[in-house]
Description:
The complex is a heterodimer.
Chain A: H1 10-24, E1 31-35, E2 51-54, E3 59-62, H2 64-69, H3 76-88, H4 94-107, H5 116-146, H6 152-164, H7 174-183, H8 187-198, H9 204-215, H10 240-248, H11 252-265, H12 281-289, H13 297-316, E4 329-332, E5 336-337, H14 349-356, E6 365-366, E7 369-371, E8 383-389, H15 403-416, E9 421-427, E10 433-434, H16 441-448, H17 460-469, E11 474-480, H18 482-486, H19 492-502, E12 505-511, H20 514-520, H21 522-525, E13 530-535, H22 541-553
Parallel strand pairs in A: 1-3, 8-9, 8-11, 11-12, 12-13
Antiparallel strand pairs in A: 2-3, 4-7, 5-6, 9-10
Helix pairs in contact in A: 1-3, 3-5, 4-9, 4-10, 6-8, 9-11, 10-13, 12-13, 13-15, 15-16, 15-22, 17-19
Chain B: H1 5-14, H2 23-36, H3 44-53, H4 57-70, H5 73-84, H6 88-98, H7 104-109, H8 111-125, H9 134-144, H10 146-155, H11 157-180
Amino acid sequence: MKAEASPLDGPAVERAWRDALALWDVSVTLSPPVGLGGKGKSHWQGDEPLAYIDLATRQVVVNLPLLEKLGAAGSLTAVLAHEIGHHVRFPHSLALAASLVLLEKKLVPGLRQSLTNLFFDLLVNEVVGRTRAGELCRVYEGFVRASPGLEPLFAFYLAVYEELWGRPGTLLPANAVAMLDEGYPGWRAEARLFVQTFYSLPGVHLQFVYFCSRFLRYIPDPEKLVYVIPLGHDVPPPDEDALDAAVRGFGAEEADEALREAKERGILDDSGLAEESSRDPLESIDAITKHLPGQGAAAFRRALVSRHYKRLVDQHLIVPPPSPAPPDASLPTVTEEWEWGDNPRAIDWTATILARGALGAAQPLRRSLEAEEPSPGAQRFPAVEIYLDTSGSMPDPARALNAMTLAAQILAASALRRQGVVRGVVYSSGTPLVSDWMYDEERARLFLLQYAGGGTVFPFNVLKASVRDRDDVVRVIISDSDFLSNVQGPGAMDALRFAVDKSKLVVAFLALDPQWAEKALAPVASSPRFRLAAVRSMNDFGRAAASLADALFGR
Amino acid sequence: MPFDIAALTRELEQAPPTAELPWRVAVAVVSDTFRLAGLAPPAPRAFEGWKRKWPRAEELLTALARALAATALRAATVDALMDSRRPAAAALEGFLDGTAPLTAEMVRGNAFRREEFLRQWARGCGGKVAGETEKQSRERLAQLDYREALAEYKKAEAARKIEAARRAQLLREAREREEQAKGWRE
């Protein structure tokens, strides 16, 4: 017996895809939809996989069985149109989404799960709903039937759609209405006013501020917010480039303007929204990445912090390192036959007479000069070992600007850009972190971003071992007055003297008044292989590091 | 000819922007519409009285005059008035009372307010809306009624103020926790 054809078979899906594309009247570089099946979760974040776009493959994925289970098989066109809407219009770029995520963190500090997807859904569904409101309603009705009780956020969200599509009482079940009546007086009027105001506000940033101001009421505790709403997890999250652009200021002017206008219109009056001033870029990165799910979150955060520090380093190292000049040609080659057309000055008459006697004039020998390859021992690539103090007297570089970390990165970048090698030793009070010799700037930058935040115990044993291992190294110690206490310890000054005697150079790059260091470092101060570079103010640390790099490695 | 709200809205949106009509010209345009329907327009002093009674009467009547001049609203109005024979003063007073909380800028900038504006005029003239029963038109106007929505919204103002204060406190505490988590020690 032939099985009945599923209503969502190939031709039906193709038809729905064509109709969905026609709704937006655009051509898109997306593959026609495929069923969810065993698709990998290259993008998916939520528990409710109804539909999404896999940006890696530019493939629309639809959970066809779930759609049928919801009783919304006839809503496939609307669902596909919804996904296309996210792709082509709301948001029209990941950078815009990132700027709204940043604005959201300012308005609602500590918000655990972003509301930007819901915001874009409201915009997309208004367009799709102009012709397919019924189909969208069936999707939401299906989810409501499957849900025992609705959270206030979802309930208010449905109330907005009831008002938008003129269908009061059709989406919200009775228990949700009772819950809203009891906990949120005036919710129906609020939903109505929201619809009648939101879609006519000028500018997506002002719309977003208004959206946050109204919806925040329905989130009892923003720090604990976790929601699952149909189609509410299908906007691709901003990637590293998009978030970096937002941190650098993309959309910042529009966001500030939106906040100013929102205040003028009284939108923020009874919202309870925070009205923060602009955040430091590292604070923004911290806020954006704090609640990111998954194991990749820490690496993502490190990458954004690394980009920020690279920009700071580049501000100090703006002169590109000069290309090394080729050595002069000075080494004579073996002799060869001189031929007509060759440079007569290349004739080696001495070698010619010695080899050919009186007939040499008829067949002279020539000799050229070539550049001599420098011996490995004579190479002048700087090898720099950086000891970086990451005790609690300085902030975590991922959360606030750490001037010592920045100085270490400037020195490392300066050496690496001159074809040098760098080793990092990040220490506090526990076991220090020691890197290999590094040739790559990004790797060095990420290593030097590590932070402990404990006490300050300089690792003299690591220093001694390193000196024994390699002595053609410039060693830079970046610390503060704590280092002066460290050198008072048993055996500490002996270790320092040993390092000074055996290294190419040891530089104590310290944040302190130099007169404090005179007595403590007196045993090594007179050595030509020791330098004290004292910086009184943390604000000058970066500049001082750039100057030190120029002094050590040349411009 | 009934009022085709959707078509009238489109015409209004597509009408080229013009300078605001002077008050006297707006009064003249509105009055002429009543004359076309065979009705005596209100006396000039009635218009002046309405300006005092409803603070936004001047800008709303100016917007009405612009809509009458630029769209098919005039034709629909004349037909409706000829059918209903509603006195001019009653039509205008009903319209101004219904649109009292609106501003001309709202009507220009908000599609819902624009629809409400047109429906209030249709109701004031005693006309029908194309494609709707009277009950549907009443319900739609009730849904759009800005004054009604504002009144309902304001009823819960006290509750919202308390909630907002609580939310602001929650967000302040969240911000403080974020600051403390930085690990910076002075």
